[in-house]
Every structure is written in C-alpha cells, then in structure tokens.
Amino acid sequence: MKMKLGIFAKSSLTVIFLASISLNFYFVMRQKPDSVVLRINNQEVLTESKMNEILAAKYKKSILQSLENSNIILLEAAKNHIAPPGKNEIEYIKSNFPNIVSEKSGNEQISEIYYVYKIYAIMNNVDKDIEDFYKETYETEPILYNLETVTDQDHQLLMNILSDFKQNLSLKDIKRKYNINISEIQKPTLVDLQQMDKESKGKYFHIMLDNKEMMLAHVRNTLKYNADNKESFYNFYFNSRYLEIRAKVLNIIKNKYNISYH
User: Fold this and answer.
1) Dihedral in degrees, nearest 10, Cα atoms 109, 110, 111, 117
2) I want to staple 225 with a disulfide (CB 3.0 to 4.6 A). Which of 25, 27, 66, 142 is the partner?
3) How far is CA 42 from the centre of its chain?
4) Bridge partners of residue 215, in order along the sequence
5) For residue range 162-214, what is the model confidence (pLDDT) as tens digits?
6) CA 231, 232, 233, 238: dihedral to nearest 10 degrees?
7) 198 vs 25, higher pLDDT
8) Can you list the domains of the chain with their CATH numbers?
9) 8 Å CB contact between 120 and 126
10) End-to-end CA distance of the chain
C-alpha cells in the first residue's frame, strides 16, 4: 500500500517552513536579491545573499533532519495501523508523561510522543528493556511504590493526616476533611526517603525540609512487575527515558525508507 504523508506531515512542513523562513524572507519580500541588510555608520556589513548563505549553512541540516524524523515516525505509525490520537489519547499522554510534556507542548508534538509510545511497544522487547533499566539504574528488580505526599508548616496537621493514613482513610476523604493538597507519585525506590528519615517504619516517612516545612509521605501500595501492572511500568520507563527510546525507534525504522537530501 502506498503511504501518504497526510495532514500531520503537511503540518510539519508548515512548521519547518516557518522556522526557516528567515532564509528567504528578504528575497521574497524585496526584489533585490543581493541588497544590503545591515549597515553600520553607513558602511555595508552584510548583504542578503551572504546572510542566506550563513543561515543555510547553520540551520539547513538540522531542519531537514527534524522534518525527516517527524515524517518517518508518522509513516511507521500508519504502516502499523496506528490511528491518530483522539482527545482521550492526547489527555492520556499529557497526564502520564510530565517529564516529556509541558504546558507549551502542542498537539503535533504530543501526537509524535503518542506514535513513539505505540511503535516502541510493538517493535521492542519491552519486558527486557524495563528489567535492564531497573538493574542498570537502581540495581533492583522492577518495582513501583505508589506514594501520597503532603507538605506543610503545620506539623500537627500532618500528624493528624498521618493518623488517618494509618487508619486507611481514603485519599478522597482526607482531602475533603482537611482541604489540603495531597500529591500522588510513583517511585522506583525508597532509598532517598529512607536516608532522610532513618527512623521510618517502612510505610510512613516524616522529612524536615530546609524551609521549615515538613513532608509526610505514605506508601499506599507496592506494584510488582506482572501482567496486571505492565502498563504502569512501561509508562514509568517511557517517561524516564523518552529521548533514548525515540532515538532507538528512529535508528531502527530509518532503514526502511529511502531518504535523500538535495
């Protein structure tokens, strides 16, 4: 089946064009291809043709490589019948990958992250990659701790919350009871918390911060790497190693396409 670049590729071309428009702006807008674009004390410093030559030498290669990478990711996604992300998929990427997505990330960038997320899961032995990642980074088997953390200067308030944690009061009820923000995070290890709170009994950590605040951390549960939890581990790994994963995907799929620069 003949692949077409489609809307996403056309959008990428538009972005690249805007990024490189300075290469020919003066040529298009003026009708003097070698007019002077910079003078100092009425002395000619830079002509239009020289400026374009400098800009092309500096930016052309990176612009072409960026366009190449974006479009072969799109082509590979289409080849694997990966549909463009809808609203739910976009929100999934935003909520699960804070290390990759920021408030400034546009839908095109988020879409590419989504395609890489799907392609990598198809083409790689994710189980082995995750196991290797844990061994190399944390020197342990894959494990994830789901924690609830709250920080405040009112130590008595935090001790009351700790008491509720120990009574297994739900996070929703605790938030409503104290009208306080409680963050939910995942950690692959508790070593850092254990070092900061050497008297910890395992599930609860009380840590004094430099600004006289106290942080309370509660381990709600622990996840082992199994069929039920694979998505959580893959998301943690993907969020931690996105650039490495994207590069790996590109290195593999580039060989499938005839790419030439002119």
Assistant:
1) 110
2) 142
3) 49
4) 151, 207
5) 888 888 888 888 888 998 888 889 999 999 998 988 887 678 898 888 878 88
6) 80
7) 198
8) 1-68 (no CATH), 80-138+227-262 (no CATH), 143-224 (3.10.50)
9) yes
10) 26
